[in-house]
Amino acid sequence: MPFHRFPRNPNARRNASSHVRGAWSGADKPGVLVTTQGGNYDPGTPKEGWDHSTPWLRRVLEDVWGLDLRVVKRQFTLVGVNPALDAFTEVAAELKLEAEENARAAGRELALSREVASAG
């Protein structure tokens, strides 16, 4: 279920969570969380700790739904849009390539796990 369609009403959210848990019964199924961030919130950066959504999403997907989760982060998406971030153009380009490779690898892993599951 894409999170942009995840219900905001608490009762509807509980129902959606129950539905997803029922549909995905069994722990350790593979999953991928793809996040985008306008800046960079990694350790050692000036905005370290400002990513307030990824930990919450991980908690739901790993701890509540029991997914074996891989996270793909695409950072500095506002470089080239926000002039204050123009100094990070080269870093943003490197992070973009890294995120694209991580997304490809995650997709390959999901496809392989699906093939193994259907063959077994």
UniProtKB/TrEMBL annotation:
<protein>
    <recommendedName>
        <fullName>Flavodoxin-like fold domain-containing protein</fullName>
    </recommendedName>
</protein>
<feature type="compositionally biased region" description="Low complexity">
    <location>
        <begin position="1"/>
        <end position="19"/>
    </location>
</feature>
<feature type="region of interest" description="Disordered">
    <location>
        <begin position="1"/>
        <end position="52"/>
    </location>
</feature>
